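User: I'm putting together a teaching handout on how multi-component assemblies are represented. Below are the sequence lines for each component of a complex, exactly as they appear in our records. Could you produce the 3D structure of the whole assembly as structure tokens, so the students can see both representations side by side? Please keep the chain order the same as the input.
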Amino acid sequence: MNKRIFLAWTLSVMLGAFLLSGCANTAAGNAGSADTAAEAAAEKTERAKANEAVVGIAQDFDSLDPHHMTAAGTKEILFNIYEGLMKPNAAGEIVPAVASECEKSEDGKTYTFTLRDGVTFHNGEAVTAEDVVYSINRRRDGKDTAAQLEALSVIDEVQGEGNTVTITLKEASNEFLAHVMNAYIIPADYAELETKPVGTGPFKFVSRAVQDEMVLERFDEYWGEAPGLSKVTFKILENAEGLILGLQSGALDLVAHLSSDQIVQLEEGDFEIEEGSMNLVQALYLNNAVKPFDDVRVRQALSYAIDKQAVIDLAFDGYGIPLGTSMFPSFEKYYDASLTDYYPHDVEKAKELLAEAGYPDGFSMSITVPSNYTPHVNTATVLVEQLKEAGITATVEPVDWGTWLEEVYGNRQFESTITGLTSDNMTARKLLERFGSEVGNNFTNYNNADYDAILAEALQETDDAKQTELYKALEKNLTENAANVYLQDMADLVAVRKGLSGLTFYPIYVLDVSALHWAE
Amino acid sequence: MKYIFKRIGLLLITMILVSFLTFLAFEIVSGDPVRNMLGTDASPAQIEALRQELGLDKPFLSRYVSWLLGFFSGDLGRSFSYKQPVWELISSKLVITLALSLISFALIILVSIPLGVFSYQWVGGPLDGVRTAFNQLCMAVPPFFTGILLSWTFGVILKVFTPGDFPGFAKDPGGSFVHLFFAAICLSIPRIAMTVRMMRSTIVDEMNKAYVRTAISRGNNRWSVLTRHVLKNSLVLVVTFLGQTLAELVAASIVVEQVLGIPGLGRFLVASISHRDYPVVQAIVVILAFWVVLAGTISDIVNRRIDPRLRLGGEDE
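Assistant: Of course. Below is the structure of the complete assembly, with chains in the same order as your input.
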């Protein structure tokens, strides 16, 4: 019995000791990490001193191979590693990069590129004409199916000799330079792009941990202006709260694409909020092939029923530029501002049109939204209320991104959806061609004979001014026929830690970190 | 011996069943890894070519069988998205999530068992209502919310750790531990509350039993009866519950990993599901199944130690 009592006591004492040691551990942990806390505080200045920065991003990279990447979020960041013969600048012009000069023949069918002197890859090897020919061919010769770029099929032949590369086209194309930008230059026959990317850009790849981070370092032999930072880490934090906490705790120095309710959580003293635009066309995209959206009057009624400014005010705290067609203001040359208010908010008019179309009591519709894009989900919620006023009962159907891609974008099985369409190559064509009735990615099933005719003409046109007019005619056609309910070009809100400057916005979706630098 | 064979058999059956169901689930839900990889501009020819390259054009059963054969020969396959062997991708994340689960589990045991015993002392007392209310609150609070709260207090204000910057075990084991410790607190609070409530009610039940009355009427004091007999008897249920908790922790860590920026298995699982990266999902799900069966086995063995009836009355003997 005594033994038992002894045992029981030992047990209780042990339990108590466990408890205490648990507390002691916590205390020790706290004491120990008080140092790490001081370190963390010091690290902030330390990072500025070391000329480094950490950028928070919301998703991992889909591929590090520049010819295989498709996600906008990947292209956005790898812009800092890879370059084409030409590249875009912040003003929206296409400027020479790996090439120093580009000459176009009289008939517009032959482009002669002179390679820039002294351009080297991140692995130290000089860029040769052979590398350029390889890179361009990889995107068009069919050996690597996933790397094929439809737009480069216009190329007939690529020849390299010495420091010149000559590209012959099957037919003249105004947009060729915009497409050749996407043939990022990589070393010939280099097979390790996925794990050890090598390009010619201002930053070189150091390391990557899947679903965690990617580290880049300044490329000292860069041909252009040297980047301001010596090291940039891209930290992946897919959770919105996680990103904000990361900024507040000092783990991150810059986060782009924040929502208006995220930025209010940041203290003004620590961060600058910079506002650009996302350069996309956010709209309620309608499946023009299903009832009742096959009736132009119904589509127009929807356009009248919706108040874009109210959407921007309610779901985006007023940040965003209202749009009236498939074009956004940073493509200045092609943008037609007069189309924005083509359908003023007018519920009575909407009801009249609905009655005319045979729906005096309205109808029911579904709005399919990719649930991982909160801005689109919020927009849908506001639209449901606005449509209710016109007698239309809309329901929001959230689906995950994979389902959206397959069902909505691929199989066109939807009534309406909210998304943002972009142009990743600075051409109006990318935004407008997709509404041609025979085009493969026309997921809205827009089918308009006039549109098809103008589109065919525009694609054939070699005179830039005339082509621009035709593109504007296409935009007008989309607006007049209310192909979709156009909403806005969403604002791009970027939080930047005080002291870090040099952020530049581009008319396409890229985050250029080369001009970033800490103040003295 | 027989017991071990039975458990291993159970493990194999569970893993095969779970992997099959996962495979089947992906077959049924919409979403296509190929379309995901090629994006919105892909041509039908590109989609077809990549589908063949990944072997996705083969019928469902033959794909599953070849995965299963690969699995039993130690090959988890290659990730679609990352084009790297799955094992290389998940091994470092597995270590982090395992560490997080074990720290949380240790916290749960060290806090809830003593607390459960003490809370029995309060039964019917003036503070019992307060305790119950507090317990309810702790059970209801989602780890995600505690995560934000703790990150804010200890990360942003007190700077004890840096949310969003998990240093990694190789670089800074101490800092990594502190980071995981806070995540573990978030994970364990609701489970501690549940365990405490469970302990309290089983002790109350047990204390009303005849043998306790007898023991007390023979002159033993309540406390010694509690620690000597009752605790042991009430532990069986609690250990079973803790076994389930151990199994659940890995899954529960997903949100906490996201909020505190810990590069663990849970986050990777969620991302891989949305990319339809089957080989990765398949591997993680099988690991989780293994973990669940293992946790069940451990709690079973512990219970057999505590309660001899389970050893004697079991069908194995």
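A couple of points students might notice: Residues 89-276 of chain B form a domain with the MetI-like fold fold (CATH 1.10.3720.10). The radius of gyration of chain B is 24 Å.
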